[in-house]
Amino acid sequence: MDIVDLQTGLGELTTVEIAEEMSRLGSTDQAVLFRLLDKDRASQVFEYLDVAHQAELLDEFREGRSAELLLDLPDDDRAQLLGEMPAKVAARMMAGLPEDRRQVTAQLLGYPEESAGRVMTPVPTVISADSTREQALQKLRGRDLRNRDIAVLAVTDHTRHLVGLVNLSTLVTSAADTPIAELMNKETHAVNATDDQEKAARLVQEADLLALPVVDDENRFLGMLTVDDAMEILEEEVTEDAYRAGGSEPLEQPYLTATVFHLARKRGVWLLVLILTAVLTVNVMSFFEATLASVVVLATFVPMITGTGGNAGSQAASSVVRALAVDEVQPRDIGRVIWREVRVGLLLGVFLGALIFPFISLIYEWRIGAVMSLTIICICAWACIVGGVLPLVAKKIGVDPAVFSTPVVSTLVDATGLVIYFSIAQVILASML
Amino acid sequence: MDIVDLQTGLGELTTVEIAEEMSRLGSTDQAVLFRLLDKDRASQVFEYLDVAHQAELLDEFREGRSAELLLDLPDDDRAQLLGEMPAKVAARMMAGLPEDRRQVTAQLLGYPEESAGRVMTPVPTVISADSTREQALQKLRGRDLRNRDIAVLAVTDHTRHLVGLVNLSTLVTSAADTPIAELMNKETHAVNATDDQEKAARLVQEADLLALPVVDDENRFLGMLTVDDAMEILEEEVTEDAYRAGGSEPLEQPYLTATVFHLARKRGVWLLVLILTAVLTVNVMSFFEATLASVVVLATFVPMITGTGGNAGSQAASSVVRALAVDEVQPRDIGRVIWREVRVGLLLGVFLGALIFPFISLIYEWRIGAVMSLTIICICAWACIVGGVLPLVAKKIGVDPAVFSTPVVSTLVDATGLVIYFSIAQVILASML
């Protein structure tokens, strides 16, 4: 397949498909593929890449080309990218921008990391509250609305204080002389530029907004958090939660292109914490070694016991973590959560306990069956409480609830579950010990 | 606090806040709160509720009020709600709608469940490809664009075939006599009405669209999948994945209002499957009972071994499940995934193994230390492979990869991990057995 064929092939793919394919390639291959794209297409594809890949690509190109790619990015994306680069490189790149873009970019970079200001699209054009529909449309003509995004316009008074929003679609469909004051929506959500970007993005999602106005401390309009940026922020958040749920720190690069060492480092931290926590289980097992030695069959069930406890706990934790993420549950609901989880745990425990009792009693003896059934009941209830409560406590003390992931919950439940198991065994099997 | 106070308090909350608060209440309280809202506000709040709560509320109201609430919903949301209701109730509700809304709703309900057609917003207004900007704006004036959503318009030929899209913002900012053909974007994504809604929603997200055109088999324009609906679809998808990652089936209702029995049922299925799978571990333990009886200290480490294997496996699985969800990895990458995971697993295993060796050797003896270290190395590598491969296999055979959640992976790794553990122990401790 020669270059011309490849270029024809690329012509048939959509921008998104090319960007996706590129994120699966190593950095040299990426650069080669990228050079094959025509200029406009290249800028478009560049926009869709994630920050890590954008930075890699810029590295591969000569100064002139890099400056061009950077300039073609929307202001908020450019600020995002520069914020992630080493300060020195970022400063050099900034110097290559035309004056007006440099100012806007510097302003965005002035807001704290992870703030709404960092990710907003600056919108210089606003509609005056005392104009009419026709005047507003006249004013818009010829303006650069950075039109990929803006479907909603800010309505302000003469000192740029936000007083409402008007949808472009409302503007377009109404009669020429309607006053803007009649068309605008006054019940307007807005966030401060220093507010957390995740909180802002969630508001966009919950209130079904196309754009959320960002204001300064005096309620002056600065720009919009657009829905596509909000989706990206939430997507990142979801990815973080998904990694944490599996007991690993989130990767900073796509899975296939991250180095093996990067992957190992992100997982190693938690794996280490977990194995240290698992020392508890060794202690519990040692403590009951005499019991284990006299009834060796007890050891046989240990993995089943710890496994079931871990599973029940992880089910409860994942329900509550998710409910917290979508604001269905709050830390103050802790009483209600415990009361639900106790009952759910008991129900599950009784169901499983009743199921296994006859089998274990037949194969071993009824006392072993009784120990197992009772243990399963207690452990299910206990695991559900632990799994339900820990994420709420985390949220309360300001830790990401997703940290109380399945592995963390199950490791904690393992040790306590074994205590329950051996205590029950010692009582019921007293005559055998 | 009397009714008037409560109404004043409600007046200070935003629509979204009220809807959120309602989703935390039981159905009777919900209905009471809902009755306190004025008419417009009630319709708005109703729109933000999820389908389960909407259905509950409609149940609480008399026919007249229900019909009104239903009529105020956007067409796609109404179809969604009716689709979830018992056929008899849905038919009665449909009969209460005016003719035109009934037709639109019936059309949407005609598409398969989970299809793009079911969730699209029907948009009767299109722009003709041979008109000018001014003609297009004239045509729009006075039209009902269902303006909450539409920021992008379909451009069609005279037989309603989709030929491109034009952003309202482009339309508004360009000169009066510009031909639409010049303003429209021809590289247009579109989906068929029978396509899967999740695939469509992901396209909206990946291509940063405000609306995705939905067409019929002849490429005739039917309506738009709007970004807010796409976000909702993806949010549901994420919730499903989060539940599955914790080893439970997704709930059909918010956590706090679902019945305890509902919660138990969604978790019980998997807990049962897992405990049955855990029978494998009992078999492995029984098989090596002689080894256990002669070196009781081996039992002491069982929970630590199974725990570490489960954790390493769940880390790998969650990385790969997430990478699959965002299309970073595909089943055909299985070779690359295995090769990465083996190396990551070995790296992690050697790190942890080297760390625990001196401690265990000191407390017990060096041979026990050697057994444990070697086991940890092998089990980490094995768990990473299993965790990485299973989601890919699932995707390949058309099962949701999230099903190979942490609990499933760790239960599978438990049994095989124990075989590794005891085999290594038998070789190294041969003289002690």
Automatic annotation (TrEMBL), chains A, B:
NCBIfam families: mgtE. The chain crosses the membrane at residues 269-288, 294-312, 344-364, 370-394, 406-429. It is a multi-pass membrane protein. SUPFAM superfamilies: CBS-domain pair (SSF54631), MgtE membrane domain-like (SSF161093), MgtE N-terminal domain-like (SSF158791). GO terms for molecular function: magnesium ion transmembrane transporter activity; metal ion binding. This is Magnesium transporter MgtE. Acts as a magnesium transporter. Residues 120-182, 184-240 form the CBS domain. The keyword Repeat does not apply. It comes from Corynebacterium variabile. It is found in: Cell membrane; Membrane. It holds the Pfam family MgtE_N. Belongs to the SLC41A transporter family. GO terms for cellular component: plasma membrane. InterPro entries: CBS_dom, CBS_dom_sf, Mg_transptr_MgtE_intracell_dom, MgtE_N_sf, MgtE_transporter, SLC41_membr_dom, SLC41_membr_dom_sf. Keywords: CBS domain, Cell membrane, Magnesium, Membrane, Metal-binding, Transmembrane, Transmembrane helix, Transport. Homodimer.
